Amino acid sequence: MEKQITSKFQSSLRTVLSSETCQFPTHNSDGIPIPELTPEQKYAFDTHGWLLVPEVITGGELEEMRDFASRLHNAPESIPEHERSTLGGAVQKLIEHPLVVALLNEFTAHPSVTSPACYGFSVESTTLFYREPGMGNFGPHNGNGLLRFPGDVHYYNAFPGKGYSPHTRIVWELNDVKKGQGGTLLVTGSHKSVYTAPGEIQNPDSDVWSTYGCPGGSLLFFTEALTHSATTWKNTENDRLAIFSLYSPVDSGFAQVYQPHPKLFSEMPPLRQTLFRNRYVVGNVNGDV
Amino acid sequence: MAYKELATTKPFIVNKNLGSAVEVEPEELTKTNADNTPVVIPTQKQKYNFDRNGWVVIPNLLSKAECAEMHAFCERLRCEPESISEPQRCAIGGPLQKLADHPVVVGFLNEFLAYPPAASEACYGFRLEESEVVPDSGEFVAAQHKGSGLFRLPGDSHLYRCVPGRGWSGLTRALWELTEVTAETNSMRFISGSHKAAYPLPEAIETPNSSLWETYTCPPGSLILLTESMTNVRVRIELEHVERSCISNLYNTVASRWSNWGPHPQLLEAMPPKRRTLFREVYAGGNVVNGEFGNRTDAYSVAH
Question: Looking at the complex, does the CB of residue B277 fall below 8 Å from at least one CB of chain A?
Fold first, then answer.
């Protein structure tokens, strides 16, 4: 198939922004190139509302991250105060992993607040989910994002060739997840639903729900416009060790603006700092645009 | 003449969870303003015209005395700003402040902008982004101004969305004309219906004389509401002297922010609590005073 030219209106009407002209960062703060999402990845995320990429982090790097995350939960005082979060130590770089940036550039970034020196999206929250067997409460929420009005950010917009997920969740599963034993539950395609959820949505064992299994180091993306839920962790071989990060457009958010520890923030590279800027649009971009 | 009622007009507005509908109606949101004046519900015709055109004029809302007082304040802002204390030296200072949550504005924004879970009797369901005294005229800059909000991907607030029975305008502007405006003195130009335009604008609009451009006329004390997702510009007025005072207030959803303007802290502090909620922090989740965020977003709740 020939390359599709997608376009989006920007604030001046006679200019239609071609994707080729959007100046997204080409490298992350660590100088690592941002890859292109494959056509299959874009298609799957838009069609299903979620995408799992297995074994993104492996080996010694994964071990180092597991160790930090475990200490964060079990022995936080062993970590300097300003590093005591999922933005600290070995896991900080996950917040702008090249694959994360690639997906967010496609589905969440807004061109008017993006430049090679500035991300076009913000971090709304990031937190550690540590679950032992028996922990985790079922509670289905969200969904039907396509026809929702934008007032609460949980929407999904699309037209031929382009999908847009303003509220996008990234889950780093640092430990193994066995399918059906506590991984996040997702209702595939429900970000575009036009019918209300059926009664059996209240049953975590209903075949309405999809879920996944994956080795540690895997990366799950889903749009918050999708109906999803936590569920009880049942895996007795390992606990759940997952970092949940939530990204929003630069202009809006569901939760209050996330602010890292000031010392931690000041030590971040400038490009990474742009993930935590104030919430508005006009002139809120660094670098050449 | 009595008109027949349509059989049903109730829209389905998607709520936060599981595709359930928002149960609360716009008429049930914040029912009084900060001065305890009852909010005015827009008429069916006003709603119809705003949705199809992208703008609506509501004439003669302010009395002659109110217009005179406000116009005089605008003149001081323009000509002798030092005569006004610094906190009040803006378009929501002095007698202009009450325009920010005028009952007609609140009623209209409850319909077209408010996020119902973030609205209560103590708290508006929308924010005030910026307030300014409109300059008499400007340069013609057609190519830089908006439009096609229906198909625009969110991210810059210039959005328009609709489902049968309900329209939603992201950035919404309220213009208060304190002096008479004629076609000769009005620098505002816009294109009706362009908030829903599916085609890029033709080259013809690059001249201010294009027949696509329209404007409005109105007596003093009138209110013009328009969606910023509509194509609009300001043109240069060649008349030697134009006596015009116009206040422009720009509103946005509780979750989003376009500009980085805010009132002087002392001015904000002195406002009634409900009016202060127009300037609250930008986020949606639970961002309501004495409200029912949980009930209003609960898929299974019937109470509100």
Answer: no
